[in-house]
Amino acid sequence: MNERALLPVPVGGFPEVVPDLTQGAVRLRAMTETDLPFVVEQSNDPATVRWTTVPQPYGLEQARAFLDLHRRGWSELGGTKHWAIELLPHDGEPGLPFAGIIDLRPGAKGGAWETGFVLHPGARGRGAMSGALRMAAGWAFDHGAPSLYWWAARGNFASWRVAHACGFTHHGSLPGRVPHRALGSSDAWVASLLPEHPMTPRQPWSEPPVIEGDGLRLRPIRDDDSAMAEPHDHPAHFVPARAVPTPQTFDDWLLRRREGMSLGRGINWCIADAATDEALGEVLLFVHDAHLVVGGTAELGYAIRPTARGRGLARQAARLAADHALLPVAEGGRGLRRLLAETAADNEASNRVLQEAGFTVWGREEAADAPDGGVGASIHWERLT
Fold first, then answer.
1. How far is 184 from 205, CA to CA, in rounded Å?
2. Fewer CB atoms near the end CB (10 Å): N or C, the chain?
């Protein structure tokens, strides 16, 4: 294939050269002067400022410069292709004349294309961006894109949720890959979409439901739950050091937990007091290099902060989480077939927790690799439906 062989040669002036695309309530169109106040609002929104490098301060002068960039991109064969996003009235919901911006950046010499997008705050929660991305991706593939890549600063879950909904495959994080306003550069998530892939999620996004019982509430972990992070006092061979947060590691630990859930690799709950909502620890279901599936297997883990131990919290939380995991989907559970757990043989407290939560021993290793790099005896547990 010749370089950009299928890209249409620009014919005519602006805005006629910009393809006008509509699917459902979402329309992609050329940007106009009347959009500029909305572009200013969008560019000064705190989420936009946090996750992008739009100039600050941002006013009409910067918006007009962006409109000029938009025009030039469509006049050049390999230029960046921007669209304004509009929401049309649909199913009783009013339309929005401007809902955001999406772009395509054609690759040189037949290489991969890239995409980026920014949503106006007034359009959130209406599915505008996922609809826009599907249309833009379809246009890219129709015009020779061999693949479409998405990048975002690590932690930008709103952007990843859009790419995830549209079938992009997450490839992990790259260090220092994207510019960052405060730090200079930031680690980046990267994901891709191929022409033959359906534009639907490739794996589930796990959302922890709220579960109450025995005086506890299992709920999503929040940014303000750092009280669960206390200095470690457990033997190093009991649990991997990074699995239990400290005051210094809580933010990164929580980011890793949320990353895993966004990839369907587990469910993480805060163990909270049902009366006060105080964060007491964590209970989780997880799989290695896969995702939770109905009829499948997962592992159970739990940790109680040191100052909250001795109250039977781990046993209660483990039973609540295990009951939910093995409950059929039709009854509100995860529909798993089997739960596993592994403990150090001398971790008597954890062994009691599993026994009281309905687990039985299915195996023992005398020289297992321990989390601290040593070797020791370990016990393998299971609970079946």
1. 30
2. N
**Measuring CA to CA, which residue among 261, 324, 336 is closest to residue 294?**
336
**Are residues 263 and 138 located together in one domain of the fold?**
no
Phi first, then psi, for residue 137 (nearest 5°) are -65, -45
**How many domains would you assign to the chain?**
2
How far apart (Å, rounded) are the C-alpha atoms in residues 42 and 310? Answer: 51
* Same-domain check for residues 234 and 380: yes
Long-range contacts of 60-63 (CB under 8 A, 24+ apart): 60/36, 63/36, 63/37, 63/39
**Cα 249 from Cα 256, distance rounded (Å):** 11
For 271-306, write each residue's pLDDT tens digit: 999 999 999 999 999 998 889 999 999 999 999 999
Structure tokens of 304?
């109680």
pLDDT per position as a tens digit, 27-49: 999 999 999 999 999 999 999 99
CB atoms within 10 A of CB 347: 19
